[in-house]
Amino acid sequence: MSGSAKLNWVLLLAVIGVFALSWYLEPDPTQRNFMFLPGMVSAVPYESFTANPVLAGGATMQLPPAGTIARGYAPIHFEATPEEAERAGRELENPFSADDLLALEQGERVFETYCQLCHGSGGEGDGTVAMRGFPTPPSLLAPKARELPDGRIFHIATFGQGNMPSHAAQIEPEERWKAVMWVRQLQAAAPPVIEEQVDEGVEAEMVSAGEEGEDIVSVSDPEVDDER
Ligand code: HEC
Questions:
Q1: Is the dihedral of CA 115, 148, 124, 136 positive or negative?
Q2: Distance from the CA of 134 to the center of ligand 1, in angstroms?
Q3: Residue 49's CB: how many other CB atoms inside 10 A?
Q4: What's the rounded Cα separation, in Å, for the pair 204 and 188?
Q5: CB of 88 closer than 6 angstroms to any ligand 1 atom
Q6: Whose CA is closest to atom 42 on ligand 1?
Q7: 164 CA distance to ligand 1 middle (Å)
Q8: pLDDT for 175-213, tens place per residue?
Q9: Burial (CB count within 10 angstroms: exposed 0-12, middle 13-18, buried 19+), residue 101
Q10: How far is the CA of 119 from the centre of ligand 1 (A)?
């Protein structure tokens, strides 16, 4: 008998064995099941959803007293509208100071986890999701994003904007503020694109396309010129 035929017999016997066992061990629904660790099934303390003779209302789970706010869930008194985004920009301030390096480092992690996929690690709108068909976000290094106040970016991270979804459910408010810090850091680290530089780049390209053999390096980069 070949190896695979043997294996088939073993498997057939195993299947028959399983059916036989489940028939033989068929539970009797009129009897209680075996209880493993009974202390976990019938706990000594009152359980969340059981009646409670000690607490008010006779219930174990109590409603929070009126007017209380759960830790970390401070309400944000802004709506998800463009006007409110502007108001957030005027009224909200980042609770972390710019020289809080720990918060900045955590902000990088938040950005890398939740923003980079669309905005790209450098903030230039070249994240994987954008590269694969999601509407490309504008560069966070562009003058427009540089001019957005911190509070406005916090509002965008909280409520979304246009095609960008809200991130309030994924990221706690403090972490959103840290991400704002990282956006500022990316902007500070990259020199702003000035109109003139863009023009020069286009000119250099035109030269290279038009006049064959022309030394393009000398047009855009005088430093390389000096080295020769
Ligand atoms: C699913 C992709 C996606 C993710 C994730 C995402 N964004 Fe965006 N973001 C966008 C898109 C698309 C826009 C452009 C929205 C529009 O139509 O105005 C945008 C716009 C922005 C803008 C406004 C830029 C401008 O010039 O108007 C900021 C600031 C911003 N995002 C910050 C963030 C931050 C911070 C995070 C992480 C907490 C984040 N985004 C996560 C897609 C994303």
A1: positive
A2: 11
A3: 8
A4: 27
A5: no
A6: 164
A7: 5
A8: 999 999 999 999 999 877 665 545 544 444 444 444 444
A9: exposed
A10: 7
Minimum CA distance residue for ligand 1 atom 7:
164
Closest protein CA for atom 37 of ligand 1: 115
Residues 6+ apart with CB under 8 A from 40: none
CA–centroid distance, residue 125 to ligand 1 (Å): 9
Q: Is 25 helix (H, G, I), strand (E, B) or coil?
A: coil
* Number of residues that this document lists for the chain: 228
The three-state DSSP-derived secondary structure of 49-74 is: CCECCCCHHHECCCCCCCCCCCCCCC
Write down the pLDDT at residue 195. 55
Give me 183's structure tokens: 């956006």
Token pair in block for residue 217:
């390096």
The pair of three-digit structure tokens given for residue 132, joined into one six-digit string: 């694969």
The closest-lying atom of ligand 1 relative to the alpha carbon of residue 182 is: 35
3-state secondary structure 116-159: HHHHCCCCCCCCHHHHCCCCCCCCCCCHHHHHCCHHHHHHHHHH
Does ligand 1 come within 6 angstroms of the Cβ of 132?
no
82-189 belongs to which homologous superfamily? Cytochrome c-like domain (1.10.760.10)
Average pLDDT of the segment spanning 58-72: 89
Domain boundary assignment for the chain? 82-189
Look up residue 2 and give its two tokens: 């070949």
What residue has token string 């038009």? Answer: 210
